[in-house]
Amino acid sequence: xxxxxxxxxxxxxxLVAFWGWYYYQNGTAHILYGAAECFTGVIWGIALVAxxxxxxxxxxxxxxxxQEKDAINSTESQAKVKVLEAKIQTLEKALxxxxxxx
Length: 102
Fold this sequence. Notes:
Blueprint: H1 2-26, H2 31-101
């Protein structure tokens, strides 16, 4: 999609340049040229904005994926800590029982 929008921008710019060259060579400045240039400028602007929006959407989705990954890692770390705490408590009780038995 990004390549397509960039292609539209290049084609629009080339079209405006061609129209300018054509009307310069013929020595005629026509209202059609002004309208065509305005229309091409609008198309170029739309393509530029769409391209930027596409880039921003990609960056936002990358940030969201990173946040999800960090949240999962945090949850996994918390689960590991709880398991280790339970093991420590079990070992402490076993040690107390062993000491009481002597």
